[in-house]
Q: What sequence folds into this?
């Protein structure tokens, strides 16, 4: 990307409200058309270096429009709750000992088996 590491596109630092706090941000804006009349702007948290807001301004011959995406509750390198990856089998599942499954695989001569 031709804009990578180019600080000419840094707009003056600003603050934004995020997760109930005021956060200092770097605001980057590309002042020329990127594609099809699109002019992007990103608000990047100075402390965590994550995008908190992305603005898009599209200029077209028949009119213009603007859109903002605000990212909230963003967690980077945070511990995951223990209940997130709990396996809950379907109600019709029957519990079998591992040895029974191994015997069924050997008896079938296949590495695949049908569980019922």
A:
């Amino acid at each position: 990307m031709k804009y990578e590491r180019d600080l000419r596109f840094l707009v003056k630092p600003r603050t934004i409200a995020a997760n109930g706090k005021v956060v200092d941000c770097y605001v980057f804006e590309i002042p020329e058309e990127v594609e099809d009349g699109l002019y992007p702007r990103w608000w990047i948290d100075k402390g965590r270096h994550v995008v908190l807001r992305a603005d898009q301004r599209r200029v077209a011959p028949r009119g213009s429009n603007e859109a903002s995406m605000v990212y909230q509750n963003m967690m980077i390198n945070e511990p995951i709750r223990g209940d997130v990856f709990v396996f809950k089998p379907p109600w019709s599942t029957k519990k079998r000992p591992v040895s029974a499954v191994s015997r069924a695989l050997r008896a079938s001569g296949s590495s695949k088996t049908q569980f019922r």
